[in-house]
C-alpha cells in the first residue's frame, strides 16, 4: 500500500524526461489492471452490531486486502473510512442496500491519511451537497487535503541518504502518479484529538490517537460495548507497516515510527476491547495473540538486520535488498520504498537502543554495529 504523502510531482527534480516517466507509469498501471478493479464485484456488507454495518470494498493487490468501511446509522449517521475514489460506486450501492444514500451521511471519520481510507470522501461530500462533515486527526489533515506532506526535493534527499539508486526514485515517481488516481483530496472540517468523545450513529465513541502507521492514525473505541475500530493500526492477518515519517524541515526523520507504533499498541492493549474491527481483514477477538505476533515479527526482523550488519557496514537500501531478496517484478519501485521504510524505522529503534551507529559517506547514510568496548 502506498503512503499518501508520496503523491509527488514527476518532472520537478533530477531532470527526468517525460518519455521515461510515461514508460514507467505504463508499466506500473499494470498493477491496477491485473486485479479485480474492472471486474463485476459482488457487493458485500453485513450488520456486525445493531445499527453498525461493515462494507467491504475492493482494493488492488493481495495485501492488505479489501477495505472495511463502517456505517453507523441513527441519530448521527456516520461513515468510518470511504475506500478509494474508484470504489465510490461500490460504496454507494452498499449503502443503498442498507437504505442509506450519500445525502443521508452526517459525518465522515477518516482513520488516517492513506488513499484507500479517504479516497472517496470528497465524492461523498459532493453528493451530500456539502453537508457531510469530514473529521480526521489534525496530524493527518495536511495529506488528506493536499495529498502530500513533503516536497519532491525533500523526498529526493531522503532516498539519496538511504542509498537508493536514482532509477528507482524515477520509477517511484511514476508509482505516485498512478496511485494518486485512486483518491481525490478533501477538506477536513473537524480536527480530532486523543480522548475526544464523538457521536457515531446512536453510540458514543472515544478517539484514541495511535501514531505509528501514520502520524495521525486513530482508533474509535465504543467503551460501553467493548468494540474497537482499529483502522490500520491493528490487522489480524499481517503486521501493519510503521511508515517512515518524513519531515519537511529535516533530512533524517526524527520521529520513530516503530517506537510510536508499539507505544500505541500498549495503549490499545490497556483498553482490553472485547472485539476489534480492523480496516482490512476479519474481526479480531484475541488482541493479545495478535500483539504477540507483531512483537515476535519485530524481534525477528531486528535480529536479521543485526546479522546483516555483522558482515560489515551498509546503506539502508543494501540492507533492504538483502532482507527482502524476493521483491521484484512490476511492483518493484513500490516494494523498494516499503522495504527501505521498514529497514530505516527498525534502524531508528536499534540506534535508540544503542545497538547501531550511523555515519554519512559520499552522500549516503551507512549503519554499522556499535562497538561493545
Number of helices: 11
On the 0-100 scale, what is the average pLDDT?
87
Strand ordering within the main sheet: 1-2-3-4-5-6-7
Categorize the overall geometry: globular
Low-pLDDT ranges: 1-39
Total strands: 15
How many structural domains?
2
Under CATH, the topology of the largest domain can be stated as Metallo-beta-lactamase, Chain A
How much helix is in the residues?
25-40%
In the CATH hierarchy, what is the class of the largest domain? Alpha Beta
Determine the CATH superfamily of the largest domain.
Ribonuclease Z/Hydroxyacylglutathione hydrolase-like
Instruction: Return the CATH architecture of the largest domain.
Output: 4-Layer Sandwich
In short:
By secondary structure, the protein is of the alpha/beta class. The chain is 36% helix and 19% strand.
Amino acid at each position: 500500500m502506498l503512503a499518501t504523502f508520496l503523491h509527488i510531482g514527476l518532472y520537478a527534480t533530477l531532470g527526468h524526461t517525460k518519455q521515461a516517466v510515461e514508460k514507467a507509469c505504463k508499466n506500473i498501471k499494470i498493477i491496477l489492471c491485473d486485479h479485480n478493479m474492472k471486474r463485476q464485484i459482488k457487493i458485500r456488507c453485513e450488520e456486525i452490531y445493531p445499527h453498525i454495518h461493515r462494507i467491504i470494498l475492493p482494493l488492488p493487490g493481495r495485501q492488505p486486502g479489501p477495505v472495511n468501511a463502517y456505517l453507523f446509522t441513527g441519530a448521527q449517521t456516520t461513515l468510518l473510512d470511504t475506500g478509494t475514489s474508484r470504489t465510490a460506486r461500490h460504496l454507494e450501492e452498499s449503502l443503498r442496500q442498507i437504505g442509506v444514500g450519500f445525502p443521508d451521511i452526517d459525518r465522515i471519520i477518516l482513520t488516517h491519511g492513506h488513499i484507500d481510507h479517504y479516497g472517496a470522501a470528497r465524492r461523498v461530500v459532493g453528493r451530500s451537497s456539502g453537508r457531510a462533515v469530514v473529521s480526521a486527526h489534525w496530524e493527518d489533515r495536511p495529506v488528506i487535503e493536499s495529498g502530500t506532506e513533503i516536497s519532491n526535493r525533500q523526498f529526493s534527499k531522503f532516498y539519496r541518504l538511504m542509498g537508493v539508486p536514482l532509477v528507482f526514485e524515477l520509477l517511484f515517481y511514476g508509482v505516485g502518479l498512478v496511485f494518486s488516481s485512486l483518491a481525490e483530496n478533501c477538506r477536513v472540517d473537524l480536527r480530532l484529538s486523543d480522548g475526544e468523545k464523538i457521536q457515531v450513529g446512536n453510540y458514543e465513541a472515544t478517539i484514541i490517537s495511535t501514531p505509528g502507521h501514520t502520524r495521525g492514525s486513530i482508533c474509535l473505541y465504543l467503551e460501553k460495548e467493548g468494540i474497537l475500530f482499529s483502522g490500520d493500526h491493528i490487522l489480524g492477518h499481517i503486521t501493519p507497516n510503521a511508515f517512515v515519517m518524513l519531515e519537511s524541515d529535516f533530512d533524517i526523520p526524527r520521529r520513530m515510527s516503530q517506537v510510536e507504533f508499539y507505544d500505541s499498541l500498549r495503549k490499545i492493549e490497556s483498553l482490553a476491547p472485547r472485539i476489534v474491527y480492523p480496516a482490512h481483514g476479519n474481526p479480531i477477538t484475541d488482541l493479545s495473540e495478535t500483539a504477540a505476533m507483531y512483537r515476535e515479527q519485530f524481534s525477528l526482523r531486528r535480529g536479521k538486520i543485526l546479522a546483516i550488519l555483522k558482515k560489515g557496514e551498509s546503506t539502508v537500501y543494501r540492507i533492504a535488498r538483502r532482507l527482502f531478496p524476493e521483491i521484484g517484478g512490476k511492483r518493484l519501485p513500490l516494494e523498494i520504498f516499503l522495504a527501505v521504510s521498514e529497514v530505516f524505522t527498525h534502524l531508528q529503534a536499534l540506534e535508540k537502543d544503542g545497538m547501531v551507529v550511523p555515519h554519512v559517506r559520499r552522500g549516503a547514510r551507512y549503519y554499522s554495529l556499535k562497538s561493545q568496548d
